[in-house]
Amino acid sequence: MNVRTRFAPSPTGFIHLGNIRSALYPWAFARSQGGTFILRIEDTDLERSSQAAVDVILEGMRWLGLDPDEGPYYQMQRMDRYREVLAQMREQGLIYPCYMSVEALDKLRERQMAAKEKPRYDGTWRPEPGKTLPAVPEGVQPVWRFRNPIGGTVAWDDKVKGRIEISNDELDDLVIARPDGTPTYNFCVVVDDIDMQITHVIRGDDHVNNTPRQINIFRALGQEPPVFAHLPTVLNEQGEKMSKRNGAKPVTQYRDEGFLPDAMVNYLARLGWSHGDAEIFGREQFLQWFNLDHLGRSAAQFDEAKLRWVNAQHMKLTADEALAQLVKDLLARREIATDARLPALCGLLKDRCDTTVALADWVARFYTDVQPDPAELKKHITEGVRPALGMLAKMLEACPWTREDIAEAIKETLRATGLKMPQLAMPVRVVVMGTAQTPSLDAVLALSQRERVVERLQNA
């Protein structure tokens, strides 16, 4: 079987991490099986769909490297195809016109609920042998309903939820075309999946209730349905379903906040799938391991602290040159020019950062005039330490500018003044870098500009 999967978002809101996970798994399954991954934009909700939301989908997937092999296809561009299939279904008697008004349908549901029955369409306009239909009202355009099978069950073996069986008697005759002829969601999805030869539908479990209806439409059209895998919900940190309404951020915001795409893929992969106890892995390893048998059945909860930890691990594993390019771009937006020191600076500082934005903040100290915190200055720059700072400035002015020679100049200053390393190192850090917390002092100074270091020590 040539595996063909799809991601079919609706551009009615900005795509967030819960949505993009529903793209990651079908992408990974297609890649792991040498198959085809398709992007389909389900944009039939004209009132709520927006080009801005489409742009975030495309941009977010591009950033994460979830590139489709086909698409994007847009449902609004396939309307002629849907109408063609509707015409075929009319000819085959698979659908029928229903003239029940919205008001009549609402009253029917009220009566059913009062009688503690499940609210559902009662088949008033469904043609049956020997049945007399009501008179067609004048000037009313009907909806078109699908003749759902009567009796029996719809069943499928879900790759996440296991065996699911629904009685056909629980399903009423679904509206698949509105009075103006525009098709409805469940019908469009089936036609698309047939035309695109989708073999596996991997999507959120909010679609479980649609699945039996879609399976019946597949079979009415003479097609076997694909394999289904319904993913549990992603919850936010408050335990609510992740959504824009509940504060979820567009996926592209994580890019802007300095997260690495491979770290995001790693973190998202673990939100509903696992391979033993593996926490940190690269994209290639993920694709080697991934299958549908290890998808979790329980809702996964987003944890930003865990995401930051995963990102920090990936930053440590990322080549200094690659980080340097990301940091260079970030600093360019702040109008800070960099130089050949940048890769080495990233290598020195990356272990203490959890995002590239945090790394850029650190690196910026080497290219701008830092302003030490007055409280730090008062604490560390005392009359007793100022002579040592002046002595160190003179030694650094004359010594070769290497880490080893700088380390020797610091040791010589300590020997001459009788100070302990923290008594000298902390003031130097505050004066040169604006903070008492930095990596090894000799490494920091070696990557700083000599003139700037000497000037700041002399003026302390």
UniProtKB/TrEMBL annotation:
One Pfam family cited in the UniProt record for this chain: tRNA-synt_1c
Subcellular location as annotated: Cytoplasm
Keyword field: Aminoacyl-tRNA synthetase, ATP-binding, Cytoplasm, Ligase, Nucleotide-binding, Protein biosynthesis
Database matches in Gene3D superfamilies: 1.10.10.350, HUPs
Origin: domain of life: Bacteria
Residues involved in ATP binding: 244
EC number from the UniProt entry: 6.1.1.17
Residue ranges, annotated region (Disordered): 116-136
Domain Glutamyl/glutaminyl-tRNA synthetase class Ib catalytic: 2-309
Sequence ranges of Basic and acidic residues compositional bias: 116-129
Domain Aminoacyl-tRNA synthetase class I anticodon-binding: 323-460
Catalytic activity: tRNA(Glu) + L-glutamate + ATP = L-glutamyl-tRNA(Glu) + AMP + diphosphate
GO MF, one example: glutamate-tRNA ligase activity
Described function: Catalyzes the attachment of glutamate to tRNA(Glu) in a two-step reaction: glutamate is first activated by ATP to form Glu-AMP and then transferred to the acceptor end of tRNA(Glu).
Oligomeric and partner information: Monomer.
Designated name of the protein: Glutamate--tRNA ligase
Originating species: Ramlibacter alkalitolerans
Lineage: Bacteria, Pseudomonadati, Pseudomonadota, Betaproteobacteria, Burkholderiales
